[in-house]
Amino acid sequence: MSADLQSVLTANKNLLEAAVSGDWATYATLVSPELTCFEAEAGCHLVHGLEFHKFYFPASANKSHGKVTTLVNPEVRFLSADKTAALVAYVRLTQFKDAAGKPVTSEISETRIWSRSSATSNDWKNVHFQRGSGKL
Predict the structure, then answer these.
(1) Which 3 state secondary structure label does DSSP give 5?
(2) Beta strands in the chain (DSSP E)
(3) How many degrees, rounded to 5, is the angle at CA 63 between CA 134 and CA 37?
(4) Which of 49, 64, 97, 111 is the 20 to 30 Å CA partner of 103?
């Protein structure tokens, strides 16, 4: 796996870990202040900026205990010749136990667009994402 490919996948992994654990400080360093997205929580409307997302973090802080996130078949496509923009698409599986202790796996398809300041930097920022829900 190339270093460029690994660096964007690492940024994506760190972003998801921050979201699941409620770590707003880390999440905010990995997303653009101008982030846009389409997701179910927004009624499938295009959302701009971070305030919408920040609302969910106090509620999720420290609730990742026992959750395991797995990316299935992540696909990375660089969108520019200098590899400063990338698209990452995958199915995200989240395993956890419900209130009764029963194992549950949820799945969601996600596509994220990342950009960085130069081809040699690792300062990836998520600039857009789209999430689908339910069984594929």
Answers:
(1) helix
(2) 31-38, 46-48, 68-78, 85-97, 103-115, 125-131
(3) 45
(4) 111
| 18-46 burial code (b ≥16 CB/10 A, e <16) | bbbbbbbeebeebbeeebebbbeeeeeee
pLDDT of amino acid 136: 45
For residues 94 and 2, the answer to whether their CB atoms sit within 8 Å is no
Q: Are 31 and 128 in contact (CB under 8 A)?
A: no
pLDDT digits over 50-98, tens only?
Answer: 999 898 887 555 555 678 899 999 999 999 999 999 999 999 999 999 9
CA angle at 60 for the pair 8 and 57, rounded to the nearest 5°: 65
**What tokens does 31 get?**
């997303």
Alpha carbon distance, N-terminus to C-terminus of the chain: 27
d(CA 5, CA 122): 11
Cα angle 126, 71, 123 (rounded to 5 degrees) comes to 25
Structure tokens that stand for 67 in this block: 């959750």
Determine contact, residues 111/89, Cβ cutoff 8 Å: yes
